[in-house]
Design brief:
The protein has helices at about 1-10, 35-40, 70-90, 130-135, 170-180, 225-230, 255-260, 265-270, 310, 345-360, 390; strands at about 20, 30, 60-65, 110-115, 160-165, 185-195, 245-255, 320-325, 325-330, 335-340, 365-375. By secondary structure, the chain is of the alpha+beta class. Strands 7, 8, 9, 10 and 11 form a five-stranded antiparallel β-sheet that branches. Strands 4-5-3-6 form a four-stranded antiparallel β-sheet, with helices on one face. The chain starts with a helix and ends with a helix. The structure holds protoporphyrin IX containing FE. Protoporphyrin IX containing FE (HEM) binds near residues 215, 312, 313 and 366.
Length: about 400
């Protein structure tokens, strides 16, 4: 009866409003806003989704630890469950045994990206000799930097689930589904939730702003470019990681009370870019090339050499990576969930972080309070799972 009334109300058929049939296992849903294609990100392929994917509005980064006694077979079981549930959820189909299937109806460009912390190479999973051969050398905590004030509750993790979508309900439900089914093998260590602007509030392709108000993410390799391939995807060192990557994840608190005491020109000099549109202080548009040699009529550099941009700029071809972070703002404070992806942490990320830790005008107003490094296994097929090249 209700269905009849609804059809009458729709007048002319559901198709006109874009009713999406998702097959026997799925639940049909009507939407007038986005078509099926724009709601679904394909997760199978050479690389895991969620890195080259145009950043979704919301993210949850979930670190998990293997429970004592969890062995290699158990770990493979967890990864297979995640692969299956990720496939279902990202296509709008409820997870296996999902008690709230309605919450899975809108995938909202959901992606699930799995990472391995150093603990995956522990004795429960690998014999020490094999672990030494298979563990990427950079898969360990970052060196201690002078600026760090790390709190253990935000550090480390044996496994990572990076869950991103354009709808926070989708993210929450996916996290619940993915963690609930595997809790006898793994326990949640920390969850960090982040956000960017909601879909539709800004023109597509606008660079995000962080909560200091700065345009953040201008200098980044373009997706699907040779530059992106060489900086982000691991070429096969070690072999099992070919097509994978690494994630450096840092929780960086912003000291907004003192930041807000600075006047606008001082805030712009700190980064070397304008607040209005993110242009370098020597240019007018966001993507203008900065001129680091330009001086004003008193001979003073227009972009201060100690500004964040000047210090962060690569000194050689290796020092480049993808930044795909999210804002956070909760009872614990405000800041940036800094997330960078690179083929090799030691070669690409560490020299830049070391230089910034040594000297960066921004350091007075930012404090790293959490840190973790993960290997991101390569992509997988419909019958596969993340990490199969390592664990099979
Ligand atoms: C650039 C903010 C932490 C590396 C920038 C820019 C801003 C910014 C506003 C200029 C626009 C852009 O190109 O994106 C911040 C804030 C941070 C932070 C607020 C902490 C809360 C970091 C960290 C690293 C880093 C931890 C790496 C260790 C870079 C790099 C660039 C950059 C490589 C591009 C430099 C260039 O080639 O022009 N950041 N950043 N940033 N940042 Fe950060």
């Amino acid at each position: 009866m209700a269905e009849l009334t609804r059809r009458r109300l729709l007048g002319g058929g559901a198709a006109a409003l874009g009713v999406v049939g998702l097959g026997a296992a799925g639940i049909g849903r009507a939407t007038t806003t986005r078509d099926e294609k724009s709601r679904i990100v394909a997760i199978h392929g050479n690389h895991q989704a969620g890195i080259e994917t145009e950043p979704q509005a919301f993210a949850a980064f979930v670190a998990l630890d293997l429970r004592p006694g969890t062995d290699r077979r158990d770990l493979v079981g967890v990864l297979k469950v995640w692969a299956q549930d990720a496939h279902r959820l990202t296509t709008g189909v409820a997870g296996l045994g999902d008690s709230e299937p309605e919450l899975a109806e809108d995938p909202a460009r959901l992606t699930v990206t799995v990472g391995f912390g150093p603990g995956v190479f522990g004795p429960g999973v690998f014999a020490p000799d094999d672990a030494a051969k298979l563990r990427p050398e950079w898969l360990r905590p970052l060196p201690a930097f002078g600026i760090d004030r790390l709190e253990d509750r935000w550090n480390g993790g044996d496994l990572l689930l990076q869950v991103c979508a354009d709808d926070p309900v989708t993210v929450a439900h996916a996290v619940r589904t993915l963690t609930r089914t595997v809790r006898s093998q793994v326990s949640v260590r920390w969850v960090q939730r982040g956000f960017r602007n909601a879909v539709g509030t800004l023109p597509e392709g606008t660079t995000m702003r962080n909560l200091m108000g700065q345009v953040d993410g201008t200098v980044n390799p373009a997706p699907h470019s040779p530059e992106f391939d060489s900086r982000v995807w691991n070429p096969g060192s070690p072999l099992w990681l070919a097509g994978g990557s690494s994630l450096v994840f840092r929780r960086i608190r912003m000291e907004l009370d003192t930041w807000e005491e600075l006047d606008r020109p001082a805030r712009e000099l700190t980064v070397g870019r304008t607040l209005s549109n993110g242009a370098p202080l020597t240019g007018t548009a966001e993507r203008d090339d900065p001129d680091l040699d330009a001086v004003d009529r008193n001979g003073i550099p227009v972009i201060p050499p100690e500004s964040h941009m000047a210090r962060a700029r690569p000194r050689n071809a290796d020092e480049q990576f993808l930044r795909r972070g999210y804002n956070y703002d909760d009872v614990d404070g405000t800041g940036l969930l800094f997330a960078s992806y690179q083929a090799d942490v030691d070669r690409q990320f560490v020299p830049v972080q070391q230089r910034l830790a040594d000297h960066d005008a921004l350091n007075r107003w930012i404090t790293p309070i959490g840190s973790a490094v993960f290997a991101i296994p390569p992509g997988f097929g419909v019958d596969g799972y993340p990490g199969e090249t390592l664990l099979e």
